[in-house]
Amino acid sequence: MKTYTQEEFDNLPIDKGVKQCPSGDYSQIKTFGDSCSFRDSCSFGESSRFGKSSSFGEWCSFGESSRFCKSSTFRESCSFGKSCSFGESCTFGKSCSFGESCTFRESCSFGKSCTFGKSCSFDEWITFGESCSFGKSCSFGESCSFGESCSFGESCSFGESCIPGEWYSFGEIRMIPGNPFITLGRCGLGSRDCYAFNTVEGIKIQEGSFFGDTATFLDKTLADCVGNKDAKEYQQYSLFVQIAELTFSQD
User: Fold this and answer.
1) What are the residues whose beta carbons fall under 8 Å from the beta carbon of 17, sequence distance 6 or more?
2) Residue closest to 155 by CA, chosen among 168, 137, 140, 170
3) Rounded distance, CA 56 to CA 231, Å?
4) How does 7-16 read in b/e, with b if 16+ C-beta sit within 10 Å?
5) Cα–Cα nearest to 102, from 86, 114, 88, 124
């Protein structure tokens, strides 16, 4: 594969305002302007910077801490190192993979079977295809939507009006489609969001780093409240568990 120097890159042809970039190794170059179009199987080094409306073919690879402006497009099977960031309205083909702690602005979209490392962060109005998988502690802004059979690591958090697809899962625990979860916002000892998930193994509660059944959750909360069942936090979570049980009841 040809390795391009800065001078060679600068002299690549421009067609209708778009720089035409053949397949190759661009790791020696750190800053790219707007409207560059790269062919398949290009490779880039760490901390690369790309302007808006860039496009990339299949099987391109990017080092960690790369930065992409809005409206960038990526075809299938591209791979990204950790701590990459993406502007709004970027689009990704199927089977792309991302390292931990990547960040995505609003209105990005992903094809099926994409994988994400832990602690990735997504703004609002982002869409995911089926069978995507997410590491632990990923966070999603409001109105994100997911295709069927997506899986999530522990301690992921969801904004308002997020729409999981059918048969999604947390680790090996599968959710029941139709009425997947409810949220209790900003309460308890840590002022964190609390989630009740409707799973094939019964109701599971997630609050902070805790993920487990309702009885264990209430026991933990009672211990945090030093055994005081009249404590505001215990009362809040006890009522939330009752609401979840009524919501997910099959009767």
Assistant:
1) 35
2) 137
3) 56
4) eebeeeeeee
5) 86
Half-sphere exposure of 130 toward its Cβ, with a 13 Å CA cutoff? 4
CA 225 to chain centre: 33
Cα distance between residue 219 and residue 246, in whole Å? 20
For 21, the token pair is 């970039």
Nearest 5 degrees, angle CA 70-CA 72-CA 78? 135
Q: What is the pTM of this model?
A: 0.77
**101-160 per-position pLDDT tens digit:** 999 999 999 999 999 999 999 999 999 999 999 999 999 998 898 988 888 888 788 887
Rounded to an integer, the average pLDDT of 33-62 is: 97
Report the largest interatomic distance among the alpha carbons of the chain, rounded to a whole angstrom.
Answer: 73
| Alpha carbon distance, N-terminus to C-terminus of the chain | 63
What are the residue boundaries of the structural domains of the chain, listed by start? 178-251
Residue that the structure tokens 């209430």 belong to: 218
Question: How big is the CA angle at 47 (ends 28 and 112), to the nearest 5 degrees?
Answer: 105
- Residue 110 forms beta bridges with which residues? 92, 128
Sort strands 192-199 and 181-187 into parallel, antiparallel or unpaired.
antiparallel
CA-CA distances (angstroms) from residue 95 to 77, 149, 170, 197?
5, 14, 20, 27
Strand partners, 18: 15
